[in-house]
Amino acid sequence: MRLSMVVEWSKGSPFRYAWKEGKLRLVAVDQPAPVNYGLIPGLINPADGEEVDAVYLGPPLPPGTRVEGEVVGMVWLADGDHKLVLADATLPKDQELAPLLAWFSPERRARFLSPIEAQAFLKSLGLSL
């Protein structure tokens, strides 16, 4: 399954932006992101009432970039604010996942779930597959 996301925080960059109403605004300077981080426009996660977060594995992409990728899994978090993992079509390698999972605080108990489990999450949100 392929989805499109908007990049808010570029891999390797400390500058974190938020995508609101079709525009980017700088919201923080933080530790550099280990992945391209953003959201799936229009798809709401009931855990936080915000658009579903997503990451794109691969080279850094500028904030505001719309990128399409294969759903290769999901980062499950104990608080329900799960992150979809998109890539060019290959399953992520351990060296790509380790920094991503370590990025989240231990109490969130981050773990990587399969593409099938990610699709079940999407289906629970009402996305037709």
Q: What does this entry look like structurally?
A:
The chain is mostly beta strands. It has one domain (2-121): Inorganic pyrophosphatase (Inorganic Pyrophosphatase), CATH 3.90.80.10. The model has no long low-confidence stretch (mean pLDDT 93). Strand 4 and strand 5 (50-56) form a beta hairpin. The chain has helices at 94-102, 115-124; strands spanning 2-9, 15-20, 23-29, 36-45, 50-56, 66-76, 83-87, 111-113.
Give short descriptive properties of this protein.
129 residues, mainly beta, Inorganic Pyrophosphatase, 5-stranded mixed barrel, two-stranded antiparallel sheet, 15% helix
Short description:
This protein is mainly β.
Write the layout of secondary structure elements.
Layout: E1 2-9, E2 15-20, E3 23-29, E4 36-45, E5 50-56, E6 66-76, E7 83-87, H1 94-102, E8 111-113, H2 115-124
First-to-last CA distance: 8 Å
Number of helices: 2
- Residue stretches low in confidence (pLDDT < 50, at least 5 long) are none
Give the proportion of residues in helices: 10-25%
How large a portion of the residues is in β-strands, by DSSP E? 35-45%
What's the CATH superfamily, by name?
Answer: Inorganic pyrophosphatase
